Amino acid sequence: MTQAPDLTTLSVGDVVAEATFPLTRDSLVRYAGASGDFNPIHYRDDVAASVGLPGVLAHGMLTMGLAVQPVVAWAGDPARIIDYQVRFTRPVVVDPAEGALVTVVAKVGQLDADAGTARIDLTVSAAGQTVLGKAQAQVSLAR
Amino acid sequence: MAVNPEIQGRVFPPTAPYLVGREKVREFSRAVFATDPINLDPEAARAAGHADVVAPPTFAVVVQETALAQLLAEPGTGIDFSRVVHGDQRFSFSRPIVAGDELTATLTVAAVKSLGAHSMVTAETNIVDADGAHVVTATSTLVVRGDE
Questions:
Q1: B87 CB near a chain A CB, below 8 Å?
Q2: Inter-chain contact B31–A72, Cβ cutoff 8 Å?
Q3: What CATH number is given for A7-23+60-140 in this structure?
Q4: Rounded CA gap, B103 and B16, in Å?
Q5: pLDDT of B132-142, one tens digit each?
Q6: Mind listing the domains of chain B with CATH numbers?
Q7: Could you tell me the pTM of the whole model?
Q8: How far lies B140's CA from each of A56, A65, A79, B89, in Å?
Q9: Would you kindly state where each structural domain of chain A is located, as residue ranges?
Q10: Pairs across A and B, CB distance < 8 A
Q11: Do the Cβ atoms of A86 and B91 come within 8 Å?
C-alpha cells in the first residue's frame, strides 16, 4: 500500500499539488459517454448558441472530476478522499479547435491531527478566471 | 412555473440496484483524467487492500443520476429540466465505491428555496450497498431559473 503523506509535516497554506488539464471536444464526448450525461450543450455549437451560451461548455462534473485528481495523486490512493464538494461558479467554454486549459492548484486549507484528516482547497481556473467555488476535499491520512 | 415548495421533505423510492462494472470504472477514470493504477488495474487495487478497482470520487454521480431522473420525471414538481443549472455538488463517503458493488440510491428533497425569480432545490441521495450499509451521500443543488 502506498504510504499516505505525513500529516505532521504539513502546514496550512502548503501547495501539495498543481496540474494543468488540456480539454478538447473529444474530452467532452468521452465524458458524456462515460457518465451518461448527453446534454447537447456539451458537444453541439448550434444547441449551445440557441440557449444563449458563449459556446460548448465542459460538463461541470467533468471539471469537478478532474480537479480532484492531483489530490488523489498526492494522497496515494483514491480511497483516501472521504469528502469532496464544489460550487459551479463559471462555465468552461471549450473551443472546437483550441480546446481549453483547466489549471488546478491544491493547498492545505485545514488540518485535524486527531481525526488524521487534511482539508485540501482547490483553486480551479480556465481562461484566467476561477470556475469552481468552495472546492474542498477532505483527505484521510490516517493509514 | 415556480418549483412546488411542497416537494420539500419528499423521499423517493429506492432505485433499482446499480452493479458497478470494472470496465465502467476504468472508462469513467479515463474520462476524468484519473491515472492512479488503483483506479485502473485490479492487481494494483488488491495490493492496496481493495477488492477490485476503486472508482474516482465523482463516479457516485452516475448512481445519483438514476435517482435525480425520478425527481425530474415526477409530475407536479414545477422543475423544468431545460431551466435547470447545476449549482453545487458534494460527496461524503463512508467507504469508496469499488467494482462489484451493487448500489441502491434513495433521494430526499432536502430543501426548496426561492432566490428572486429562481428556485434552489437541494437533493440528497443516500447510496447504500447490497448489505444496506452506507457508501456515500451525494448532495446536489439544482438552480431552476425562473422567468426573467
A1: yes
A2: no
A3: 3.10.129.10
A4: 8
A5: 999 999 999 99
A6: 5-20+60-144 (3.10.129.10)
A7: 0.96
A8: 23, 15, 21, 5
A9: 7-23+60-140
A10: 109
A11: no
